[in-house]
Amino acid sequence: MADSIFHYYQELPKYLRGYHKCPREEVNQLAALIYRVKFEDDKSHFQNISKVLKDLVPQDQIRNLSPDDWKRSIMSLYNKHSGKSREEAKLSFLKIIYKWPTFGSAFFEVKQTTDPNYPETLLIAINKHGVSLIDPKSKDILTTHPFTKISNWSSGNTYFHITIGNLVRGSKLLCETSLGYKMDDLLTSYISQMLTTMTKQRSSRGNSK
């Protein structure tokens, strides 16, 4: 249970910033669950829904519906799970977003000019699957580079550079960001984790021969 509380508060801000691609019906479900976590059985905040929408719905989706339409959609789903506790609502929230490919990511908004196939402003997600490049407008994942394909990376105060494939024929992505050090740390820890796992697997295979 402690785990769910930790993950909920870790994932909620990323969700509300609009970093994930999520279908409308799930946005409504999640809004109803967040409302229950925040206010439990107190329905009074529905009267002034426009004040709390920014805490319930991803920022890039708020304008898709009028406050009254949001109120109707969220309230009908909220009423369906009356009696649900705060903890149960947190778990239900996590069960929905856990299925998304970007769940558990650290997100970074960067600028890039090296690859004309990608938008100049990119969203980079780093998670256990690798490094994903995301279109910040559509939230589509443009490509995911698994850690096994990343051959080199470096960072400074204003940049983060990453090389995919081998050093001779690989492609390089140069990003402008002030969070290069964070991206560097994350990549280093994920890759060292991967190498440790691979070494363990090799030695256990060696022992079983």
UniProtKB/TrEMBL annotation:
CDD domains: FERM_B-lobe, FERM_C2_MyoVII. Residues 1-198 form the FERM domain. Pfam families: IRS (PF02174). It comes from the Eukaryota. PROSITE patterns: FERM_3 (PS50057). Gene3D superfamilies: 1.20.80.10, Pleckstrin-homology domain (PH domain)/Phosphotyrosine-binding domain (PTB). GO terms for cellular component: cytoplasm. This is FERM domain-containing protein. It comes from Takifugu bimaculatus.
